[in-house]
Structures are given as structure tokens and as C-alpha cells.
Amino acid sequence: MRPVLFGNNPSFWYETLRSFGHIAYGGADFGEVLTTAQRIREGDFDSWYDEWLLTADRVADVAREAERGGHPVSARDAWLRASNYYRSAEFFLHGNPADPRIDHVYEASVAAFRSAVALSERPVTPVEIPFEHTTLPGYWYEAADDGRGRPHPVVLIHNGFDGTAEECHFFGVPGLVERGYHVLAFDGPGQPGPMHRENLVFRPDWETVVGAAIDFVLTRDNVDPEGLALIGLSMGGQLAPRAAAFEHRLSAVVSVDGVYDIAENFIADIPGATREEKAALLRTENAPEVDIQLERAAADSPVMRWALSHGAWVFGVDTPRQVLAAMLDYHLGDGIAERIKAPTLVCEAQGDLFFTGQPGTLHDHTPGSTLLAFGDELGADAHCHVGAQRLAIARIADWLDETLRPTA
Hints:
Blueprint: H1 10-21, H2 30-39, H3 45-68, H4 72-89, H5 100-117, E1 124-131, E2 134-141, E3 152-158, H6 165-168, H7 173-177, E4 182-186, H8 192-198, H9 207-217, E5 223-233, H10 236-246, E6 252-256, H11 275-283, H12 288-300, H13 302-315, H14 320-327, E7 344-349, H15 358-365, E8 370-374, H16 389-404
Parallel strand pairs: 3-4, 3-5, 5-6, 6-7, 7-8
Antiparallel strand pairs: 1-2, 2-4
Helix pairs in contact: 2-3, 3-4, 4-5, 9-10, 12-13, 13-14
């Protein structure tokens, strides 16, 4: 898929395509995205923030006007779009976590989303999931009635390196609900809710996070405890299989897209013949030559620039080299993938910007897994299949149907 905007900046184009893709489930409108993107100066993070904020505020005003006029459906639709536009506005700001703009638009995004779901035809409830000394934010979606008169299976879904629990809605949660699944969308440590509320950074033992989410799900009414599925998006494509390797209450796991080793693609140019040699260099106290190399990489690559700046925030470290060192802990090697017992769907985006080759490796190491490749012939080859949300969730949901309720 050739970029139609930001031809020299793959990060800006991908994030624009991401918003275009969210049109499928009400998170954007084509003209709003296009006119916003056309106002942005390519590569300018402040311009990106200013223009998305302007659009988000305008659409939020549309929502308020609809509410005042007694038009709840129109208000709901506008609140959904405003929520996604606010989310997009803060995307490139995390190189300075103290920037007050970050909290402003994050809180506006969450508030807009909650205004939208309060007007939803299907029940959607903001929830707090007990987790260790705190709680994790999420949303509980009630399944549409499928006429079976039996408890419903549940899909737990979380995002990855940067996406929010609210954004999961636009990746296709309504498509799961209308197929008869309850859904719990939630943020774990390192993800926006816990980061904004208490600076709770990522942790590799993701099974503790998913275990808490499962405990919560099992307190809900009309739930089939033998029909629990987990979907992980983006970096969640590593986190979800990691959880499934140790949390065997899961009946299915979906990796969108598959990631076996978060660090591998990012450390490819670090000196060293083996992963162990690269790791030693990244973790040593002083490696000035590597620090200079990473500074140049960030200057040359918009993708690397964003990944290293955002990574410092969500991993709770200070330098680019420490970001890569932190990534080393997020892998499914050492026999972890082989421990997965649940049926596993590994999705692959053939034009992935971040994790090329990783889905095949995860598939090779996961017993009995299914590899589902998405190509560019249907516009689905971008990371997490943004731009083809309806197609992607249909294929994932069909696999879940065949896996969790084959005789339904």
C-alpha cells in the first residue's frame, strides 16, 4: 500500500492510516481525517498535536450540540470520533512525559469515549479490575443475544506499546459483541491508563495481568468459563501469547500480529554476532559507540525516533540504549512459546512496519498454532491490518467461532 500522505515519513503515514482504518467502527470520518492530515507539517510533532486537537475539539463541540438538541445517536457518534482524534493528538509527545498536553488530551479522549458508551444501544460499562495494590481500567461489553439461551464466551482484548483500551473499540470490539461475545477491553501496566494514572510501567510477566482480568471476568453474570479467549494487539502480539503460556484458563489466544521477540528487529544493527553479545553491550554501564549509533538511528528514522522516545516512558528508563535493553525481556524464547496449550491464531501483516518476520517465528514455536497472513491485495498488509478493520475482525471472529463453539 503506497502512502497517499506523508510520503517521506512512515510514522506519520501509518498513524494517519490508523485513523482512516478506525472509520470502520465509528472512530473517524474520512473528510475529518484527510483535512486534518493535510494541515499537518510532515515530521513536526507540535503540528501533529495542534491539528488533531483542533479537529477533536471541533467534533466534541458537535457532540455537545447534538446532546443539547436531544439527538443521542448523533452525539454518540461524534463523541466516538472525538475520542479517537484526542488519542491521536498525544501520540508523538511522549519524549517529554512532563508535557502537560499529554494528560490534557488523554483525559479528553477517555471522557469523550465514556460519553459515547453512555449513549450506546448495547450496555458498555467502565470497570476497574483489581490488580495487586491497584486497579486496571477497562470496559465490559454485554454480548448481543444469540438466541442460544446459554452463557456467552468472553473475549479479553488489550492493546500494545501505545494503544488504549478505548481504541480497542475501533479495532473491532462491536463486531465481536454482535457475534455473541462478551468483551473485556482493558489496559495493563505500561499502557495508557495505568501510565497516566500512576506511572505503572510495562512488566514482562503479563500472565499476572491477564490472570487478574480473568478473575474479574469470572465474577460477571452469564459467562462461559470454558470459553475465554484473549486477543493482543501490536506489542500485545507478544504479551498475549506470553500470558497464555502460563495462564491455562484461556481457551484460545489471538496474536495481532505475532511477535516472538520484541527486541530482535530493533537490535539488528547493534554490534555483536549473537543476541547475548548484543544484550551485554546494551546492558553494560558505558557503551558510547552504541549511544552515538542510536542517536543517529533516531535522527535518520522517524520510526526509530518515536519508538525510542515512547519506549523510555513506558519502560521507565532514561536512554535509548536502556530502551533496547528493556525490550530484551519481552520474548517467547527459552521454551515459553512451547508451553502454550490453548489454540493459537497468529496473524501476520505482510507489510508490517515494525515486526517483519516475527509472526512466522512465533507460529513455528507454538504447538498447533494457525498462521493467518494478510496481504496488500485487500489493503490489509499494514501493522495490525489498520485500514482493513472489518476484514481482520471477521477472520479473527470466524476463527474464534470455529475454535470456541464449533457446533454452534
